[in-house]
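Entry type: protein chain
Record version: 2
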Amino acid sequence: MKESFDLIVIGAGPGGSTLAALMAKKGRKVLVVDKNPRAGGRMLTVRKHGFSYEMFPINGVPARNSLFEEVSRRLDLEEELQPVLPKKVGVLYYEDSAGKLNRWVMGSSPWGLMTALGVRLWKPLSLIRTFRALKEMATLPPAEIEKLYDISAMQYFKRFEPLPEGIRTYILASFGEGAFEMPSDHTSAAEMLKLFQAAQKNGGGRYYRGGIGTVFEAYTRRVEELGGKVLMNTRVDHINFRKGAACGVTTEDGQKFDAPIVVSNAGLRQTVLKLAGKKHFSEEYLSWCRNLEHNLACAGFRYFLDAPVLEYPMYIYYPEGCVAPYKEFEDMASGLIKPAHSYIYLGTTSLYPDTAPPGKQLVYACMSCIADPELDISPYLEYVEKRVRKIMPELFDHISHTETFGPGNVAGIGTDIVLPGQGGESYGLALSTGQSGPAQPGHLSPVAGLYFVGCDAGGSGLGTHQALDSAVKLAALLE
């Protein structure tokens, strides 16, 4: 006989595990099915060689007063899942057109930031324009921000020009590909401004003891403690339908489960084109689905060090001119140009408790790239290593072993590949112009009983916080 539930959640990523735990807390009998060995999706925590780490870098924004703490309170997990915040978030490196490298410790003197970014303090007009731009970004009312979903971050910034190139580079690279893994000519200005204000108010750098994945592992444990069921290392083969409505799932090993509500955290396109099947949707909906825009991926290194080299969790390298349009990333992927002046993230989570053996450190170094799993990442690795050697040469004296990562690693733990050139994206669907705010894909599918959750559905914010926002909103909808 089939086992029956009130709700089935496909995927225990940040959105799926959060929704499942919230619904179990409301008294629903919940089943969670996930292909990975533990919860977290793309942000599951790997435990190897005494290290606990994620496959890719993470920066928790906001650091304080986040949805993570609200959800943990609802689930009675706030004592277990207390955030760990760094005293100093990191360091900014800005390389000007002459090759001079300037350094600024984040959170220190704002005048130091201006100097590092090449702002001439003796040129009052330049300073006035800079502070005018930063003030508007920090104080623009929500009602005005809501009007900017269809304006790109790059378009929005043009209203302040001419600005010092360093300021333009810092803002657009940080809140484009740096945060949303999307070039600033595609990133929604509204989402950029909301994140900018959240970071200004509540900071960044939130993490958890033992890794961010421990949060989602705790959420799935709570599902079981509240009478639900969690199946890890189990793939859903397809969603079942009865009289045109979703009614359960069948796993690849033949298990069948019934529920009047099926929620997918496996990706909107993956759910429609693969798990549900095209016959349940109109041609218009399928065309819309195929044309949705996903974000970029990242390619780089995990360096395992025999000594703690990095003093801060995050080091960001901005060469002048690194604000690249989407077309430039396409040209890099096709081999027309090589990476030559891109933004680079260098960072470690080993400064947080229970993440590394004593005296050792794991360091990420990476840049953004097109999300095609077939992408040749060797030119990106060459560029990243060359730049890291410039900003932190001492790191290479302490490498015990190295791992590389790119879009080809993502589909194994993230969303499956269902379309050409797709599968390596860092989050899922992009918060881009024409695809955010009122135009953003929501929780509801055209099929009764089938819903979406996670970064592909109705959430706002950065990465994992966006996924939790989606889960909280869908939990309220399903009450």
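Comment: The chain has three domains: 3-84+210-293+427-477, 111-202, 296-411.
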